Amino acid sequence: MATLTREQLKLLSEVNLYIRHHGFPPTMEELRKKMKYNSKGSVKYHIDRLVACGHLKHKRQKHRDLAVTTKGKKILKFD
């Protein structure tokens, strides 16, 4: 996947902003509410795509385990 969809870019931005503000990543439920999705499955779908593209990664395979990669930060223009 070469380019991100608008939804994927918005989700990546939300994850990054949440981590910067709180110091830890959001839960799937928090992302679902923020993105106004009807199900956590929609959040998972976009997260899986962002992980596959290398913009997000799972740190521990537990709750709140998302991290924005260097590649993800570059697309958001953050260092």
Q: Roughly how many Å is the radius of gyration?
A: 11 Å
Give the overall shape. Answer: globular
Number of helices: 4
Structural class: mainly alpha
What would the average pLDDT be, to the nearest integer?
A: 90
Instruction: List SSEs in N-to-C order.
Output: HHHEEH
Q: How would you sum up the major sheet?
A: 2 strands, antiparallel
Number of DSSP E strands = 2
Low-pLDDT segments: none
Beta fraction: 5-15%
Distance between the termini: 23 Å
Q: Any descriptors?
A:
79 residues, two-stranded antiparallel ribbon
Characterization of the model:
The structure is a single chain. It is globular and about 30 Å long. Strands 1-2 form a two-stranded antiparallel ribbon. The two termini are about 25 Å apart. α1 crosses α3 (about 40-55) and α2 crosses α3. The mean pLDDT is about 90. With about 80 residues, the chain is mainly alpha-helical. It has four helices and two strands. The protein has helices at about 5-20, 30-35, 40-55, 70-75, and strands spanning about 55-60, 65-70. About 25% of the residues are buried.
